[in-house]
Design goal:
By secondary structure, this protein is α/β, with parallel strands linked by helices. It has 2 domains: 183 residues, FAD/NAD(P)-binding domain, CATH 3.50.50.60; 139 residues, Polyamine Oxidase, Chain A, domain 2 (Alpha-Beta Complex). Strand 12 and strand 13 form a beta hairpin. It starts with a strand and ends with a helix.
Length: 381
């Protein structure tokens, strides 16, 4: 039964950043347990080949990666996120919005060009996609502390320790022990997929179950091209459509790399579940051709990521949910045996930016600060 002072459940941005903050405080006695085979959580990328980009744990020199999950951040509103990006020496650039946008006001009306608009403040994207942030943080962590393909099934409070039960893809169980647990997975996912013994307070479980998980209802389509030909037509790559299947479309081109367009599906998750990816991609290519011309129907690669079908992101409750950034629930148990022993640090627990990338940074920082103070208090003579 391996022991650690702190266990981090979840290897997305919040979990990895929490590990970095612990190491910066000189706290190296931790374990990070990730259910997926790769780290990053809802930050996922597709390479220019159309294949999923696999994180290596080392800073990537490749810039040709395109986000399937979160894409933007706003330095003016999110200074903590901006500071991390700068500290890690990551390059970023403004979202391309120059030119006209295209709108389909109804299923019966043809597409129409209209004057585009520039966001204020500008949305920013990382060179190499958000995966560059994951790679940069992982490169600073002790690899032996990071354990992938170990989905946590249960947590048992056993007095001085919390026992953490995991199971491999082959059904091999493993139990870890820690004094404290940082939950770096969304509240709803924690409430639905983890078994707590003894049970968490009813009010806390109710609030966690009713906190929507950002991205859990979303699906994204990304199409890659050799050049951003729509810009030559005076188009920004922005589009809004009441016809679909994509409702909101943006330019996803990477400076120095491939051109790209991406869109969010406007079709509910339960409907998407009954349509194959091949059929859905064909409909997306047809829509892009309507909006941007026949060349848009011939991407060099295209891919769909449906987060609603990802068991480590979505639950049954998310199939009929709406995409929204809700209020953060309580991150700790106010009383009982779990008080001071578990802390939620995923993005949905962020007070200012629940669901956003910046929220993962904020929630992890708050959780580690609270835990560090608790440890200092308990260990001070």
């Amino acid at each position: 039964m391996p022991d650690a002072r702190i266990a981090i459940v979840g290897g997305g941005l919040s979990g990895l950043y929490a590990a970095l903050l612990l190491e910066q405080r000189g706290i190296k006695d931790y374990l990070l347990l990730e259910a997926r085979e790769t780290f990053g959580g809802r930050i996922a990328s597709v390479a220019s080949t159309g294949q999923m980009a696999q994180e290596t744990g080392l800073p990537s020199d490749g810039i040709d990666r395109f986000d399937l999950g979160p894409t933007w951040f706003w330095p003016v509103y999110q200074p903590q996120m901006d500071k991390l990006v700068r500290d890690l020496d990551l390059a970023y650039f403004e979202q391309h919005e120059t030119g006209d946008m295209v709108v389909e006001l109804s299923p019966q009306e043809p597409p129409a060009r209209t004057r585009g608009y520039l966001s204020a403040p500008s949305s920013m994207r990382l060179v190499g996609g958000m995966g560059a942030l994951i790679d940069a943080i992982r490169s600073k962590l002790e690899p032996t502390r990071l354990i992938a393909a170990q989905p946590v099934k249960w947590l048992h409070h056993s007095g001085p320790h919390i026992e953490i039960g995991t199971e491999t893809a082959h059904g091999q169980p493993t139990t870890y022990r820690a004094a404290h647990v940082l939950l770096a997975l969304p509240p709803r996912l924690a409430a639905v997929t983890l078994r707590f013994s003894p049970a968490l307070p009813d009010t806390l479980m109710h609030d966690w179950r009713n906190t929507a998980t950002w991205m859990a209802t979303h699906a994204k389509y990304v199409a890659l091209y050799d050049t951003p030909f729509w810009r030559e037509q005076g188009l920004s790559g922005e589009a809004r459509s009441a016809r679909g299947p994509l409702g909101e479309i943006h330019d996803a081109s990477m400076p120095g790399g491939h051109a790209a367009l991406f869109g969010f599906f406007a079709i509910p998750a339960r409907v998407r579940r009954n349509v194959s990816d091949d059929v859905m991609r064909a409909h997306c290519r047809t829509q892009f051709a309507r909006l941007f011309g026949p060349q848009a129907a011939m991407p060099v690669a295209d891919v769909i990521k449906d987060w609603a079908s990802d068991p480590y992101t979505a639950t049954v409750a998310d199939q009929d949910g709406t995409a929204q950034h809700g209020a953060a629930p309580a991150a700790v148990a106010a009383s009982g045996v779990w008080h001071g022993r578990i802390t939620g640090i995923a993005s949905e627990w962020s007070p200012q930016f629940p669901g956003y990338v910046a929220g993962a940074i904020e929630a992890a920082a708050i959780g580690v600060q609270t835990l560090a103070e608790h440890i200092a208090f308990r260990t001070t003579p």
